[in-house]
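Lines hold sequence, tokenised fold; shown next:
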Amino acid sequence: MKRHFTFAMFASQWPLAPTLVLVFALFISGLHAAHAQGAGVNADLKITDRLIVKYRDDIATPPLARTDRRIVMAPVNDQRRRTLESRMRESGFAMGDAKSTSFGAHVVHIGRMARGDDVARLADRLKASDPDIEYAVPDRFVYLATMPNDPMFKSQWPLYEQVGGIAAAPAWNLMAQFARAATDPDLPIVAIVDTGYRPHVDQDLPEFGKNYINAEATSPLDTGDMRLAGQCPNVPAPQANSWHGLAVQGVISARAYNGIGIASVASQGVKIYQSRVFGPCGGYLSDYASAIRDAVDYRNRNGQRVRVINLSQGGTGGACELPVQTEISRALSLGVVVVASAGNGRTDVSASSPANCVGAVAVAATDRWGSRAAYSNYGSGITLSAPGGDDYTGATSDGVLTTWFNVQDYETTGTMASDYAYVRGTSFSAPHVSAAAALLFSLNPKLTPAKVIDILTSTARPLPGMCPEGCGAGILDLDRALQSQVPAAAALLHYYKPRTAAHYYTINGSELRGGADGWRFENIAGFLLPRPLANTQPLYRYHHRNGDYLYTARRDELGDGRDGWRYEGVTGYCPTVAGPHTQKLYRYYQRHLGRHFYTVRWNDLRDGKYGWTYEGVACLTFTSPRMP
């Protein structure tokens, strides 16, 4: 008996062979390029050393009167300053300089960098103590929300739009910090079982699986799946080339930040494996199952392996075939997530294989407005949804922009003919989820497939649009999913003991709470992770018999302890990649006292003064508990 499936590209059918027909369900639209914009601004209340205080009788400076563009250090009047100093002292802060603002308020330094919630409580106390204060709020840090410089990025609404997108842009800040090196054995690979690959200027060359369409080929190169009318007995209708494998790969891993073309969900942190199973007349079920097994068993020379398999095919009219179910079950047992497009039949997914196979992540398609795309399958068997695009308005830009192959240019010039196109279908909702699953494995290689699926569904957001028939847990939220695997960085608390002039640093807030044994809390010297991630290193602590404490990221500096130093363990984990959300922790030593001191403020001691000798950077620290 024949089975008909749909790859998720519309409107033509791509058959699977004499005994089984698989079809892509893909719409292809013309390309309209757009320039990427720069950045928005995100506010962050993690740490700060300043308050904004606005008195009711403060007056904004008229614009025409501001002839001097320098920042003015305007004092608060004496009575108000005494009140501020008293309340700050009661709360453990020391009032510093104040400056005026153009909107009539004062910015007041509180003497040290402190946690945002502590500064917020101080602000509340100040306002409660003085009825003349209109408001007092922490002076939050703000950051540029960096966006890729790929010129077509602004046309990729699935990556950044709040209504229908997956919140990929903020997640990239996190992956830029924790992405694994290209040779890291734990760098995950996404296997694409499809029409094969095409070289493209905006994509890295994939790892090669088998070419089941041409056994003599040395790579899974997609040489086209165009067919003439009557060429294939199972599907007699003609069809144009789909370049389906290339388009799917573009959604997952098109190069970002390279100044050309588009970005993608997982341009940082994954590799791609391609196998060619579908040609002009489709492919055999036996090859399809074999390709899944081959992907699961694949290992490259770096020891990297496939952790996610993308199956952008969705059929109608039958149950999951036993060979495919067997290989999907085996993949799950070996730690591999299998993601399948729900299909484009506008019907219940229970009749669409491989999405109806037990254990497969069935992905429905949503449109730009967060509703189920009209073509997408649905039902209780859907795991979650992701953008697949639609054309309600007739605008091609409501599709998913991805990589494409320009046959006309290739035939004319003989060059690679890299191009881009808008496509639609559940074929392109699935790779959004495949990329997200791979990034979760990149952050935490110990995750099981069941846990990855749990994270994807528990962090998905409700559809803002309509899907009464059932679209799973909601729309993929990449930022929430990845943030779940990055622990909040803990404040590196700096304590000082006047009696011994010793400095002590810890991320354990209860260790010296209340000034135990004469220790006095001084400030926060940055933030460290409580457990290791990619691109982090331990900060080791040593205690000298003379009472000094030394912190170093080089274990070979003192090993297990020598010359009077005793090894006391790991204080926390420092980032090894410098970025906009990291800062240096400077190390100093004073020979007269026999003491070490650490600070993130270079101006404290610069290259050495007051008898302190600069010894270099102990490690990097984060600037806040979470990256904005």
The chain has three domains: 46-139, 148-483, 490-622.
